[in-house]
């Protein structure tokens, strides 16, 4: 797996499982870096199936949501699949308010996601 | 509102540099923590602070460091009140598309105003659209938040 600062990526049976280094995703420079590290997994390292595990994430801004949406589009255009997991209730509420629950596939935990990828 | 017995107030301005708001935001959240606001409530307040302050820096003042963002905040065990003003030309909130509908659902921006509205009890803009005033009364929920909580 490539060296990264904002995310930690590991392989689970051909699926790339990503966890986040920051519990609060608000710093704009870090969000740019996070986006680039995610894009690189698709564009430079040819990964196609992803689980983004949010268990460490306590807060994220709308700028971070924007980056996740860009990533979802990138994965889709490369015929990949993306599932979000382990989202705590406060963060899920943000997805629900903005109706992003309709855009993203969301599962309770990694095992649920890996079972369908 | 003026009769309310506020525990702590903050009035300051800062240049429109990315992340310049983080220090004030942490200070306000620290005060609310001391006043007994729960983590869940602080989440919503942080969202409103983050989105209104970054909107002022990024969209209002276009990250022009010669322009300032003015912030005024009052807190108490029952209420959080915030006013944020930028030096930009302003905008018309009603003209911002609903981020939940149609093609806007997949747009990478445009969610900040919706989130502020969801987490605050009241949100008001001045006529020019360069100043937002908001208040959260503990225990009161917006209709947006009630819709997703039910």
Automatic annotation (TrEMBL), chain A:
This is Anti-sigma factor antagonist. Residues 26-117 form the STAS domain. It comes from the Bacteria. Belongs to the anti-sigma-factor antagonist family. One of its GO terms (molecular function) is anti-sigma factor antagonist activity. InterPro entries: Anti-sigma_ant (IPR003658), STAS_dom (IPR002645), STAS_dom_sf (IPR036513). Pfam families: STAS (PF01740).
From TrEMBL, chain B:
InterPro entries: Anti-sigma-factor_SerPK (IPR050267), HATPase_C_sf (IPR036890), HATPase_dom (IPR003594). The keyword Transferase applies. The keyword Transferase applies. It holds the Pfam family HATPase_c_2. GO terms for molecular function: ATP binding; protein serine/threonine kinase activity. Keywords: ATP-binding, Kinase, Nucleotide-binding, Serine/threonine-protein kinase, Transferase. Residues 20-136 form the Histidine kinase/HSP90-like ATPase domain. CDD domains: HATPase_RsbW-like. This is ATP-binding protein. It comes from Aeoliella straminimaris.
């Amino acid at each position: 797996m490539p060296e990264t600062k904002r995310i930690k990526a590991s392989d689970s049976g051909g699926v790339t499982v990503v966890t986040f280094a920051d519990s609060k995703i608000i710093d704009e420079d870090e969000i740019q870096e996070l986006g680039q590290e995610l894009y690189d997994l698709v564009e430079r390292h040819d990964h196609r199936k992803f689980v983004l595990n949010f268990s460490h994430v306590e807060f994220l801004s709308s700028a971070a949501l924007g980056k996740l949406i860009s990533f979802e589009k990138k994965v889709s255009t490369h015929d990949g699949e993306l599932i979000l997991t382990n989202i705590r209730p406060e963060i899920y509420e943000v997805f629900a308010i903005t109706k992003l629950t309709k855009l993203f596939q969301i599962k309770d935990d990694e095992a649920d996601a890996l079972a369908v990828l | 509102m003026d009769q309310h017995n506020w525990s702590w107030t903050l009035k300051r301005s800062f240049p429109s540099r990315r992340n310049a708001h983080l220090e004030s935001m942490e200070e306000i959240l620290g005060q609310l923590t001391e006043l007994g606001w729960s983590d869940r409530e602080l989440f919503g307040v942080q969202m409103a602070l983050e989105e209104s302050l970054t909107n002022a820096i990024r969209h209002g003042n276009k990250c022009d460091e010669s322009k300032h963002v003015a912030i005024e905040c009052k807190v108490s065990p029952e209420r959080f009140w915030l006013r944020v003003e930028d030096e930009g030309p302003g905008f018309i909130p009603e003209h911002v598309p609903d981020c939940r509908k149609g093609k806007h659902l997949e747009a990478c921006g445009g969610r900040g105003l919706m989130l502020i509205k969801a987490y605050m009890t009241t949100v008001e803009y001045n006529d020019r659209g360069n100043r937002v005033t908001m208040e959260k009364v503990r225990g009161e929920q917006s209709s947006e938040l009630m819709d997703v909580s039910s």
